[in-house]
Prior knowledge:
Layout: H1 4-50, H2 54-69, H3 74-98, H4 107-115
Helix pairs in contact: 1-4, 2-3, 3-4
Amino acid sequence: MKSLAHNLLLLICCSILMSALVTAISLYGSHRSAQSTESGLLAKDLMSDIKPAPVYLIELRLVLSRVVEGTLSVDQADAEIKRLSAQWHQRVDYWKSTLPARASGKPARGAVQGGDGDD
C-alpha cells in the first residue's frame, strides 16, 4: 500500500522535473529570440546601407545636375561617378562577406547579390 510519504516524494519529483522542463523551454525560447533580434538588426543595417543606396543616388543626381548646368566638366563628372560607384560596390562586397551562411537564399542575401546589377 502506498504511503503518504511515498505520494509526497512522487509529487516532489514530478514538480522538480516539470520545473526543469519549463526552465529548459524558457532558455531555448530566449536563445531563439536573441537570434531573431540579431538577424533583424543585421537585415535593417543591410537595407539601410545598400538598398536603395540613397546617399549615392543623391550625390549622383547632384553630379549630373552640375554637368547639365555646366559647373562641372564631363571628365570630372566621370571621375565622380566612378568614385561613387566604387564606394557603393565596396559596401555591397562588405555585406556579401558579412552576411552569415544561414542567410543564404533568403531575401537579405538576394538583396546583396542582385543589388549591384552586375550579377
